Amino acid sequence: LVSSVVVSITNIALLVWEAMTIHSIFLFFQLCVVILKFSLAYSVKLSTTSTLPRTSATPSELHRFLASPANWPKIVASSHSVVSPTGKSLDEPLKIKEKVDEIFGLPPILPLSVTWRLEKSVPPTGTKAGYLEFYSENGLKSIASDCRMQFEINGGDTEGVSDNAGSESCVKLTMSYDPQSPLATLATPVLAVDNAFALKVLLPSVLSSQVASPLNDFRRLMGILYGIAGVAHLADCLTDSRLLTAANSEPFLALPSLGQAYALLWCAVGPVALLASMVGGLVADYGLILYGLIEVFGAYLLQVTASPASPSVFQNAIAVQGIVALAWAYSSTTKSVDD
Question: Which one has a higher pLDDT value, 19 or 331?
């Protein structure tokens, strides 16, 4: 009898707990819906600031670069392309009231577009900062409206914004929009990261790559060489695997699945370094570093797993990457002929 009572009480407790859990989950989702609906009543505003050396771009050059929509896909990861409704060349700065369609998302699978109109354009001078303002009333249909993109450009560490003053150029991006869908609110963190990556990483890298210098020439050369190497390594892995067998490793097809995966990663990082070199600047350097790390670690794995061991493979990989690092350091301290 006692055991029956205990079992009954236990079952009742479990039913109550289950009901409370389901009710709590239901309340949680209701709360999320309320928060999302509440957030639709307020505009979203995001700001990002970046500082660039004037050797990459003066304030005037920075203003011209940002006012030319053809440059946007170069520095915004989510931007796919830009199209002029009138057929105007977008390599030149827009004029007041001119429009541009920015295509982003994943076209042609998920093509999204916003039509921007240039509202204000104030080039920087010796007495005032530069300013750009793009506006889209309709924004992204059913998702966001009243979209605004504002750029403030000044001279960084100096009071004036003369191109000949100071050593830095600063740009501040302020983006705002009115959410029309919970998706616009949920996408806010992604947009914030996209903006920060654009201004703090891609913008300095792209502007730096446009400056003629031995370092940029070296980055492009190594990117091309690594890209070719990656394709050659893949072709070798899928045929007779001479590079692997020369290091006393099994051929690619005889490697365990993890070994094959790492070999494919080694092949893929070559084209990745090539794409990074096309962006330029720090992005190009990150591509070279990534290639070197993967190659050196791969050589180490060969050394500890190959039978018999081939210690020279790891040593050779270290030596090659050391030479690349020294060449980078030399190029970074060498001035161009024009200088």
Answer: 331
Contact (Cβ atoms closer than 8 angstroms) between residue 222 and residue 277: yes
Query: Is pLDDT of 158 > 50?
Result: no
Q: How far is residue 197's CA from residue 260's CA, in Å, rounded to a whole number? A: 33
Residue type, 215: L
∠ at Cα 319 (317, 321), nearest 5°?
A: 70
Estimate the share of the chain in helix, then strand, then coil, as percent rounded to the nearest 5: 55, 20, 25
For 91, the token pair is 């390599």
Q: Count, in order, helices (H) and strands (E) of the chain.
A: 11, 7
Q: End-to-end CA distance of the chain, in Å?
A: 98
User: How many other C-beta atoms can be found within 10 angstroms of the C-beta atom of residue 191?
Assistant: 16
Q: Which helix (H) or strand (E) holds 104?
A: strand 99-106
Upstream peptide bond of 214 is cis (omega within 30 degrees of 0): no
CA distance 316 to 322: 10
- Rounded-to-integer distance, Cα 12 and Cα 148, Å: 57
Q: What is the pLDDT of residue 169?
A: 85
| pTM for this entry | 0.73
